[in-house]
Amino acid sequence: MMAVPSSRPPRTAPVVAMVGGGQLARMTHQAAIALGQTLRVLATAPDESAAQVSADVVIGSHTDLEDLRRVAAGADVLTFDHEHVPTELLDKLVAEGVNVAPPPQALVHAQDKLVMRRRMEALGAPVPRYAEIRSVDELDNFARRIAGPVVVKAVRGGYDGRGVRMARDPSHAREIAASFLASRVPVMAEEQVNLRRELSALVARSPFGQGAAWPVVETVQRDGICVQVIAPAPELPEDLASAAQELALRLAADLGVVGVLAVELFETVDGALLVNELAMRPHNSGHWTMDGARTSQFEQHLRAVLDYPLGDTDAIAPVTVMANVLGAAQPPAMAADERLHHLFARMPDARVHLYGKAERPGRKVGHINFLGSFPGTDTAGLAKLRERAELAAHWLSHGQWADGWDPHD
């Protein structure tokens, strides 16, 4: 029997539209190239990180409905480099037939800390004790109830430590809350957790319902900014690691997440896990996957939002350390390319990812991955790898070797 040709036109390469032109969009673009896809970017300016490298750029604002319509027009799916798009605008796009991933009813849990905390409680996920704060008196009542130090948070908009203030004492807590409230910023408070460390459980979920989880990692914070990630988290009991992965996968399913989900966790001193934050996009705690896992978080996010089968999340090395490169207080006189030259001369195994961003104090301008061939139980080997990662990141930031190393000696 002769085969009958299909009357359907051949499928063209998918177009994924991403709101935001930062480094996450830039690295997602790199993954899209390998998959033969087009990543269209909504950027605020032509010199934004992703706009520098993508051939399909829309200049506009994530708070303007017409700009969102322009970037979504003809795309297979609309996804995000950040979570700051107003929910009401996304609802309008969905009503117009735009495929938004993650959908707005899921994304709101990464946008609004109070909504997220309440939903976590409803789903039985452990969270720190918290309260909505509409007056300084309500803050006082909460502080008396928990009988301990508090954290005061802006309900929306904070990231990298912004909008999150650790109160030194009740008077300081009232001062912080009064400042937020005077600026008409919705406020919540929660207990300061007696924690051992911070962890991140990174997973992905497709519309089909397939889920995949990477190894749980430890994140190291300084001044509210992640400076280092260790994958997998050292000395994390297997049952606790499995519990964190299962929790993240369950939350992804219960919330209806499509794409990558990062569940930031507190590990308390008594071995409990508490949900701290959610991010529904590629996440800083997953940058190690670019060199240390079989499928990077950026490729996986594309697979998930396009409903492809998800990739293998196994680590390809026993341990990977990622260090963020943060802008120095004073930009070094040495050009970035020369700093890179010297770094490779000393550390040829460094896997460097720079974002094309202007250097400003504390700004994330890149990251470096180091892979270790030793077992994760080798504490001395891990300490040395972490030290090398910190040295490399400091060198790229400052143009100075923190250990005084001189290539001419």
Keywords:
409 residues; alpha+beta; 9-stranded antiparallel sheet; 4-stranded parallel sheet; 12 helices; 24% strand; globular
Written overview of the protein:
- The protein is of the alpha+beta class and 409 residues long.
- 33% of the residues lie in helices and 24% in strands.
- It contains 12 helices and 17 strands.
- It has helices at 23-34, 65-72, 87-95, 104-111, 113-122, 136-146, 170-182, 238-255, 289-292, 297-305, 336-346, 379-398; strands at residues 15-19, 38-43, 57-59, 77-80, 130-133, 150-154, 164-166, 187-191, 195-205, 211-213, 217-222, 225-231, 259-268, 273-279, 319-326, 351-354, 364-372.
- The strands form 3 sheets. Strands 9, 10, 11, 12, 13, 14, 15, 16 and 17 form a 9-stranded antiparallel sheet that branches. It has a 4-stranded parallel sheet with strand order 3-2-1-4, sandwiched between helices.
- Strand 11 and strand 12 form a beta hairpin.
- Helix 1 (23-34) packs across helix 10 (297-305), helix 3 packs antiparallel against helix 4 and helix 4 (104-111) crosses helix 5 (113-122).
- The radius of gyration is 22 Å and the shape is globular.
- The relative contact order is 0.10.
